[in-house]
Every structure is written in C-alpha cells, then in structure tokens.
Design goal:
heterodimer, A: 512 residues, mainly alpha, two-stranded antiparallel sheet, 20 helices, 6% strand, elongated, B: 538 residues, alpha+beta, ten-stranded antiparallel beta sheet, 22% helix, 44% strand
Chain lengths: 512, 538
Amino acid sequence: MLKFLLALIVSASGAWAQGPMNFCTSDLETFPVQAGGREKPLYVLATETVRYMTGSDKVGEFSATEAFCKLSLKAFGMPLELPVNIKVDHIDVRKLLGMKEDQTHLPVQELTAKSDLLVQKGQEIKENNSFKKEINRVQGRLSTYQAIVGARAWTVPVLESGKVSFVPLSEFLTQTRVESAQGKGSNPVSYLFEVAKRDYLSVKGDQYLLELSYFKLNLFMWSLLASILGIILFVVMKNKIPGAVVTGVTIVGQLTAMTIRVMISGRAPITNMYETVMFSGFGALIISIIIFYFRRDILFVLAGLACNVLSLLMMKFANGMLDEGISPLVPVLRDNFWLSTHVTTVILSYAALALSWILSNSLLLRARFGTVSSADYRYEVDLIYTSIKFGVVLLSAGVILGGVWADYSWGRFWGWDPKETWSLIVLLVYIAILHGKYTTWIPPTRFVPLVAGSFMSVMMAWFGVNYILASGLHSYGFSEGGAVFLASFFAIQIAILLVCVTKRDSQATPNP
Amino acid sequence: MNNLLRSYRQVELFFGNMKFAVFIILLFALTLAYGTFMESYHGTEYANRLVYKSWWFMGIQFGMFLSILFATLLRLPLRKSLYGFYVIHAGLIILFLGSFVTYQSGVDGTVSLAPNLPSRQVQVNEDEFKIQFPARGKEVIVPLPYSAGERNLGFEYEGVKLSTFLPFAENKESWVPDKLADPGQASTKYRLFNDNFGETITLSLHPQSAYNNTQQLGPLNVHYMPATLAECFAKNTPDGLIVWNGETTGCSSPEGQDVQRSRQASGRELVEVSYEGQRLRFMPEMSPLPLDEKMELNELSQFRVFSKKLFEKTPHLFLFGKEVAFFDKATQKWEAHPAETGQEVPLPWMGFKVKTLDHRTDAYPTMVPQYIKPIQDNGQVTVGNLKAVQVEVGDKKFWVNSQEPIAFTLNGERITFELTKRGLTLPYEIVLDQFKMDTDPGTTNPASYESFVTLFKGNEGSEKHRVYMNNPLKYKNFTFYQASYFQTNEGPYGSVLSVNFDPGRFWKYLGSLLLVLGSIWHFVLRKKTVVKPGEARA
C-alpha cells in the first residue's frame, strides 16, 4: 500500500538509494507537528514519545528525532531495524512476559510477539490494581510504537486555502503527492517537507520554535548547579557577596525558563505536578529572601536554596511522577486570573512551610549530632516560627481564594473535595501548633520535631491526594512513582524524628 | 444569679481554653483526613453521608465555633496588642455563621436540559419516597434520612408500611420458594466457560422471576426452554420444524406429508403444518405464533412453531434445564446431551463448555437489594449505586429501588411507589437551544463546554444567555453553572447545569476577608522576635 514509496525513492535519485539516512537528520528537529492538541517542533514530540516508550532519550546511537523519523519511514517499506526497547516497570508484568526480575526493558519485537499475553491477562484482571495499570501502560507503549511505524504518530502541516491543517504522515506521503514532486529539490520527499514547513511558517510564524529552545537550553539544570554552588559559597565563605551573586544567577535562570514556558503555554506555570514543583522551589527561594529582608539571617536563604535544589532535583530525576511536557488544560482550569492567584498562593504557602521544614530538620539533626546552645536553639525556633507564620497567612489566603474560585465557577464555596479538604487539614495542623505553642503541651523542644513532622501533611495535600487518594481503593500496590516517592519521604522523615527525639539527653539537650 | 454567672464563667473558661482549641482543631483535622480516605474508597456521597454531613461532624464544627467564640469573649475588653487576633476570630465567627445560613436555607441542585425541551425542574441531592394514589390524586412524600448505613423508617400510612431504607445497595440473586410452580416454570443456573473466560448465567421461565429465558454472550445466543421440548430438538428431521403445544406441553417434529411450504408475495416463507388434526399456518422467519384466517398473528393460540434452520448459521445454545441442544456445523447435525448437575458438556464453539450448577422447579430466582458499602474505582462509583426501600402492604413485602417506580394494587386501588430525588420547581423556564463542545485540535479531549439557553420569564418576556465554564448565568438569586453534559438518543447533546442559591454568600466572603486581613495583621505586621544571640536588638 505504502510500499510504493521505497521503489519510487530508490529509483528517483542516487542519494536516496542509501535509504532514509540522508533524510532523517537533526534538521528535522525544527519541523512543525501537531500532537496532543498543540503545535510543537518535531524534536519535542519525538523526545516525549521515545522517552514514554523506552524511558530514554535515545534509540541505539540515534537521537530521538532521528529514530522517530526512521521508524516512521518503516511504514513505507524502509527495511531497517532499530533496537527499540520498551520499558516494563512492574515486576509481575516482567514475570508475565518471561523477563528476569531486574530486566527493565524488552525489545519491541519480543513484546509484539507476546502482546496476546498482555491482552488476555488484562481482560482477566477485573480490579484496577497496579498490575493491571502497568499492563495497560505497556500496551500503551506498544501501541505508540505501532502508531509510529504505521506513520500515524507524525503529523504534517498542509496548507489549504490559507489555512493550515495537519494530516498523519501516512496520508501525507501519497503516491500522487510524491510523483508530483518528482525531480524537484534534492529528492521528492525532502522537497515536500520543505514546502510543508515553509507553508506553515508563512501562516503561523516561528513561535512554536520557542519550545525547542526551552528544552534545549536546559536552564533548570544550570539553575540547579548554581543553587548548589550558592549553598557552598554561603557556607564556606565569610564574604556573602559571591553567594548572593550566584543566587541571583539562579533566580534569573529560573525566571527566564518559567517566562518562556508561560509564553509557550499561554498560562501561569502552575497547572500540573511538574509545574507546581518547579514553581515551589523558586517560590521558596523568593520567600526566603523576603523573610531575610525582615529577619536578616542568612539561614533563611540557605533553606530557600536547599528547597530549590530539592525541587530542581525532583524535576530532573522524578520523571516517573512528574511529566515535563506542556499539554492543553482541562476546561475547568481555563481561567488565568483565578488559576494564577489561587494556585500561586497555595504553592507559595507550601514553599514557606518547606522552609520551616528544612530549618527544623536541620536544627533537630544539629542538636542531636552536634551541639546547639540553648540561646541558639531558642533563636532558631523563632526563625522557624517566622516561616510558619508566613506559611499560615499565605495558606489561609490560598484556601479561601480556592473557595472563592470554586464558588465563582461551580457555584459552591466549599464541597469537601479531597484537594481542598487536605489543604484545610494542613492549615489546621499548623494552626494547632501555633495555638499549642501557648500551652504547656508544646515547649520549644517539642515544637521543632512537630514542625518537622507536620510537613508530611503538606506532602499529603500536595502529592498524596493525587498519587494515593485519587488512585482509589484498588491500587495500593505502591508500585507507582508518586506513591513510592511519598512513602519514602514519610519513612525518612519518621526515621529522622525517631533518631532525634528518642536519644535526646546529655549535653546535646538544649535547655530553653 | 451569681451561681449562673459562675457556671457561665466555667463554660467560658472550658471552651475558650487554648488546650481545648488545640484539641478540637486536631480532632477536626483527623476527622477530615478520615473523610478524605472514605471518599477515596467509597465515593463522594458515602463520605458526605458518613462524615461531612453527619450530626457528629456538625458537632465538631460547633465545638470549633464555641472555641473561637469563647476564646474571643475571654479576651475582652479590647486590648491593642490583640487587634489582629480579634479580626481573625471575628472573621471566623462570621464565616461559621455564613456557612450555617447556607447549610440551613441554601439550594444546591442540578437541572438537566434536553435540547429544545423547556424545563423548570431542579433536582436536589436529597432522596425522598413518593407514595401516590392516582385515583384520588393523593400523594404522600416521605423524606429519606441522609445516612450512610441501613435505616429503619418506621413509617405507616393507610396500610402501607415503609420499613428499611438502604442508601447503598446492590441487587443480589435470591431464590423464592414456589411449591405450586409447574415444571414448565423451571429455573436453572449454568456456567459457560473455556480456558480463558467464564461466566455464570441464570435463566428462568417463571413469570415472577427477575431473569429472562434468553441471554446473549458475545456472539452466542442462549435460549432457555421447557424440558419437554428437548426431545424434538434432538431429532434431525429434513424439515427441521418443531411444533409445541403450550397446553399439553408436548412437542412434535412434523415431516413429509404433514408439511407444506410456499412463498408469500413478500418473499417470506409460509409453512402449513398438519398437527393433531389441525392445520396451522406459520411464517417461521417472522414469529413462532400461528396465523389466523386474516393472516394475522394469533396471540391466543396455544401452539408455537420453530424452524431449527434459523438457528444453524450462528451459534445458538438451547438449554432445557438438565438437557442441552445445539447445531454442530462440523457434522451438520443437531445434537442433544444430558446435563445433570455438575456435568460438563463440550460445545462446538471455541472450546466452550456448559455446566449445570443448579436446577430448580420449586423456587425461582429474583433480585433483592442488599446493603453494601459503595466502592469507588478510578473516580467512578462502581458498586452500590442503588438505593432501595422495603415496602409492606398487607402481607406482601417488596423492595422499591431508585431505578424504577413500582405499581401495586391494594383492595382494588392502584398505588405507585417511587424512590427519587427531591425536586424544586423554578418560577421560570429554561430551554437549551444548543450545547457546544470544542476539542483540542487534533484530539478528542474537550477544551470547552458551552450551553446556549433561553430564559422564559413569563410576563417579563425572554432572554438568551451563554453558560460556560467560569461564566455562570445569574438570575433572581439563582446562579446556573455549566456542570456536565449527556448524549441524547436523537444525537445532539443535552446539558446539565448546576443550580445554586446561597444566602450565606455575603457573610462567608466578609468572614474570609476579615480572616485574611487579620492574619496579616497578627502574624506579619506584629514584630516580636527573638534576637540572635550575641547581637543587640536593633
């Protein structure tokens, strides 16, 4: 059906006789495509797709774009085999497919041969547990592969009466179209793509290329390095100027990256988990500087940088849980004003509470394993208290703004929805601590571990609602990225608390 | 008087105490956390019934209110250092009062709009039970409790008793003894299975059973028939006809001379059968009922005729209680096998087998709602969507569920029972002119929903509105929001608007504003800090 192309191309010119090698180059990275409801450069589509299937950005020696292109041309009879290895995360699914327990990937040919097993098992399991979800995901990866090699994943812009529409590659490279391009350009297919891109640019401009720069610049990576350097400089050097300069570089880097992201998506950068993590680290740094302005203690900035490093690390390494892709919003969130004000306020409040979390844990550990004078202890307790106050004010405002938004768009101020309920729980937990501080129940030595532990409620509201509550009764396999992340966080935090609270006698004990 | 004052003072000190505040805040937080987990496991409605709308949860909230109120009263008269505190707590008190007003007299419902059909009915999320006496034009409405568990209603009206209410139920199979049933009213439970797939089916010929005598399982049609028909299905005759006499329950397979076939002008086959001295005319492709002189179906006839040929092309399985028959394409023959309880009979399709699990002629299977905690899976409540009320009239007991109303005759009078949502009637009409859904380019993901509606205000004329996300329609205290949509049989989409009337809105906004301003005042503007050791206070 599509095989004509091979013959046609091979006969057309000597250069094409070498197969798709000359066509599938990195030049295609800037080619405009439409995917997931948005227009973007092929680089972004190819990288997202290849990463989704294989968990890596490369296929063998080829970049994602080259591999995506070569695989798409298989539909037209290009005889080539790429080592595409599909990711399989769940141990039971690995067993089902006859893989070793520690084997993370399966070659796509083998998986295709065993796809009946997946279908059968998927139908057999009635409840929606983590095993079944992973079966669905592996099937999804496989069908994505099939869409690519069927030339359906790659969409090509076509100009018709002044309007650009997108068609799948399989419909774009028709016999008539290729024949009509015969003898034009270096070869007919390259010529068709050049025309398609030129047509697209003439109507829509090159705005879409911003996304290519966004991903290629990798500004968050540089900000991460700058943040780490900033912490080192602040700790090591007596002069605070170099640290301040590097911190400034971090802020500029992240601000630029977020601005570009806003320009691409056309909305505030706080609409999914990835973006809230991205914004929270930055927010913690900014809030720490604001508090620093009032309290004049570099500890705040250090805590802010530490939060920023943690969130940037998550963005870099928690791919299983956070998706960095930019996709269209669900209708209910399409209100920039409320989205910006409500979510920003809540995330900033979490950021301020994260400062208190870092400060209290660091104080706990230093008091446990080093020495902290009681005056210093009392002083740092007050610093923690300051950041909680910022957090609580911002969170009350955020929760209420959420209510106002809900009232405005759904007609109810409050509906006990899990996300709003958990944000209220966080507020209540910290309010209880603030009230308890005035009673004999919470002296400073109890205040610090309580604050450190209370951040678990923030993590529950932030991630737990999405990764534990939303998955429902039947998915407590804890095999999914988000749930594993949360469980590890809780385990580590509880371990720190146990270690620091149980053996607190002798000289390390501050006596306020 | 002094005593009274002293006990008031004690109450004030108890509820205004900081420790009580910490206690009640934590209790509230823990309850909420519990509620969110219940919501995740069992769905929104269950969590609302169990926690958020329960009396004890109201009690905890009232405890919060008392704590805030008395903490404020204890700190009177006004002290300058506590201005922020007063504003926060006043804000909270107003917020609580506003919420209480909403809870008491607010309306939160939905209105479903089919395209171009005027509607003024608002459905509120409260269940009620309607008993109607149509002949007298009388209607009794019993509000049902908003409980999470089973409740005894203890309601009685003119010999009609309502006993149990199940807010969450599933229909479970239950066998009702019926000693008087004749063998033709048998019921049987079978298991159909192969290596990968299996399903248990229940079939019944009893008129009061909740089960049918046919069932479709993928491409396979299953028919359940009286046992007396089995012998005729087993016979391989050239004509493949079976005549069944419903009165004598006997059957026969007429052949040769007794069968005459002809074609109608319409192309349909007409068959004339001589049976027990009668001549019966049939159109087997159309119906098993015989035709009368006017060539119309005679529904009163005791005879039925089947042409087995109709069941040879596609898979049809005939079950007769303890016997099984089917057409085997490989041998081109009808086969019959005994199927005693527990016995497996191989079928000629994809390795399937059938096994008789239970065959009864002295009881019939029916559906009885049983209480079950609902289960939520992927945001959908998959189990426990049914509500039911048990009704007792005279010596009869039966269930009325939320799926369909039931009619009953008592002493010659027709009574209807219905379990439904409470409705409100708007003083004006809304018509959906069009529902529009846009998708993200190149995908099927919805990008926006929009309802074009016309509001008919009686004498005041009409006006057109667009309702979409973040753009509600406000009219006379009521606000209409785009909530959902549904597909109608005719094709165009219908729209669901949520309808809301909130008299506490102003107070909630005022309280919120005070709360936020007070917090800023109290926490941020007040500077009272511990000085870093070794540094002098600036």
